[in-house]
From TrEMBL:
Domain called Thiamine pyrophosphate enzyme TPP-binding: residue spans: 389-538
Domain Thiamine pyrophosphate enzyme central: 196-322
Family (UniProt): Belongs to the TPP enzyme family.
Organism of derivation: Nonomuraea deserti
Alphabetical UniProt keywords: Thiamine pyrophosphate
One Pfam match: TPP_enzyme_C
Keyword Cell inner membrane carried by entry: no
Name of the protein: Acetolactate synthase
Length: 556
């Protein structure tokens, strides 16, 4: 008798071949054979309370590990619940696979339970979306989906697998099961050599260069190349997204608060792995007289929204290494002459920091958000992964919180999705149990997916959660006040005064309420020592707004 294998077990074998160690899921009758396969393959199954959390966790897992994340959800509402997580991964260029159930092929178009056109819905927000047509093709198409996740800039893929395809068994010799490391090529492109030579010349002659290290620096694991580049060529560096932490705070080339000044005064600006989207003022925040170079994994991003002088498509690490090597032999004393430029920026940086410092040390009650994020920044260690999940409160943190190591900053990305925090913390701690995980939530953001705090308790995934609680969706409230007046500022954006510290204790974690700024650090220390999932509910002043909130273009 020939050995047979089911569709669900073929899924698990394909996941194993890709190096997937965990799936995030919410159970459903369409998908349970995948669970059975995962048990046999040694893949951990973490079951959550909402499919959005499963998709966000798969996204977070990919960001932390560099390997694709995987979420498995049932058909119909299970898949539609996961759409937001997939869309967030798409805009953030995060490689993950969502597998959704589907009614049996034998019941196609008959109105089976939870039947929806999932592939049509997912196609615009994935790099690849398909139906698996037969059991023999299951593992083959899973490997195909993973290949597409890494074509150009990374992103998500989606597969729906009909229930009878998953449950059926076929002779194992009829099923193509890809072998680890033998079904997709390296995607690291070194860039056009002529373009790299031109970049080297620009670097050799620039008097006031600046570089922005974006998320793709971490995606490409290009930290060492980026550090060598800025030190060899004496170039001041700014970081955003997952690129934060590339240089440690205190590094002489690490700059944060002087970016607007630098991009106005620089004669050469190099943008690495960051699109000219709303975060960059669609490119309008760069000096019109500067020479602008853009490096990106995706050719469609280069030169989009703003003309550039040079565009290079490829892996950030390979390109920066090649450019540094080519420029170092022809730069002469130009790097040393940039000392005055570095000092000029450091003066601007210091002035901005000192201007804000009184608020970071404020003893006001309700607590000034600057004081809260200052305490968090002082609390971080080199092993703390920082996650921001919120609007106004996380905008404050973007000015102050500086991760001390590469890959230790997580935020939603350009989709601006609230509710990622619990899922990202779950994935980060599960993937890196040797790391401390700290998440700053807005109270509105936490309430979207906060019930999965219980999942963290159930799977023993300790993390330090802080809720900056102003009982408001304050970022939106500011815009309403500016547009319609204070008498209509609180329409649709005011929340209850919820004691989230008590909520954490209810679910088996550690929780505290903080109203005095002097109590923030002791509460954080107790959360760290508790060894439990924790929530420190910090009551912040609802009448102050982050500068980034007040400067948002949507309100102008």
């Amino acid at each position: 008798m020939s050995e047979t294998i089911s569709g669900g077990h073929l899924v698990a074998k394909a996941l194993k071949a890709e190096g997937v160690e965990v799936i995030y899921t919410l159970c459903g009758g369409h998908i349970i054979d995948i669970y059975d396969g995962c048990v046999d393959e040694g893949i951990e199954v973490i079951d959550v309370r909402h499919e959005q959390v499963a998709a966000h966790a798969a996204d977070g897992y990919a960001r932390i590990t560099g390997k694709p994340g995987c979420a498995v959800v049932t058909a119909g509402p299970g898949t539609t619940d996961a759409v937001t997580g997939v869309a967030n991964a798409y805009r953030a260029e995060s490689p993950m696979l969502l597998i959704g159930g589907q009614g049996a092929l034998s019941q196609h178009k008959m109105g089976s339970l939870q039947d929806l056109p999932h592939v049509d819905m997912m196609a615009p927000i994935t790099k690849f979306a398909a139906t698996v047509p037969s059991t023999e093709r299951v593992a083959d198409i899973v490997s195909m989906a993973f290949r597409e996740c890494y074509h150009g800039a990374p992103g998500p893929s989606f597969l729906e697998i009909p229930r009878d395809v998953l449950d059926a068994k076929v002779p194992i010799e009829r099923a193509r099961i890809p072998e680890t490391g033998r079904y997709r090529a390296s995607t690291r492109q070194a860039g056009d050599p002529e373009a790299i030579e031109r970049l080297a010349d620009l670097l050799a002659h620039a008097e006031k260069p600046a570089i922005l290290l974006g998320s793709q620096v971490w995606t490409c694991r290009a930290t060492d190349a980026a550090i060598d580049f800025v030190r060899t060529l004496n170039v001041p560096a700014y970081m955003n997204g997952s690129g934060r932490g590339t240089l440690a705070p205190g590094d002489p080339h690490h700059f944060q608060l002087s970016r607007r000044y630098a991009f106005t005064e620089a004669d050469l600006i190099i943008i690495v792995g960051t699109p000219f989207d709303f975060r960059m003022g669609y490119g309008k925040r760069l000096s019109p007289t500067a020479t602008v170079v853009q490096i990106d994994l995706d050719y469609r991003t280069v030169g989009k929204n703003r003309d550039i002088d040079l565009g290079i498509v490829g892996d950030a690490g390979l390109i920066l290494s090649a450019a540094a090597q080519a420029a170092s032999g022809r730069i002469g004393d130009a790097a040393a002459k940039r000392k005055a430029w570095i000092e000029e920026l450091r003066t601007v940086e210091t002035q901005a920091y000192e201007k804000r410092l009184p608020r970071q040390h404020s003893d006001a009650q309700p607590i000034d958000p600057y004081r809260l994020v200052h305490e968090i920044n002082e609390f971080l260690t080199e092993d703390t992964i920082y996650i921001g999940d919120g609007g106004d409160i996380v905008t404050f943190s973007g000015q102050v919180v500086q991760p001390k190591s590469p890959g230790h900053w997580m935020d939603p990305g350009p989709l601006g999705t609230l509710g990622v925090g619990t899922a990202f913390a779950m994935a980060a701690k599960q993937a890196r149990r040797d790391k401390e995980v700290l998440c700053l939530f807005g109270d509105g953001a936490f309430s979207l997916t906060g019930w999965d705090f219980e999942t963290m308790v159930r799977f023993d995934l300790p993390f330090i959660g802080i809720v900056g609680n102003n009982s408001s969706m304050n970022q939106i409230r500011y815009g309403q006040a500016a547009k319609y007046g204070e008498d209509r500022a609180r329409v649709g954006n005011t929340l209850g005064d919820i004691r989230y510290g008590e909520f954490a204790k209810l679910l088996g974690g550690h929780g505290e309420e903080v109203r005095d700024p002097a109590d923030i650090r002791p509460a954080l220390e107790r959360a760290r020592e508790s060894g439990k999932p924790s929530l420190i509910n910090v009551w912040v002043d609802p009448e102050v707004y982050a500068p980034g909130t007040m400067n948002q273009t949507m309100y102008k």
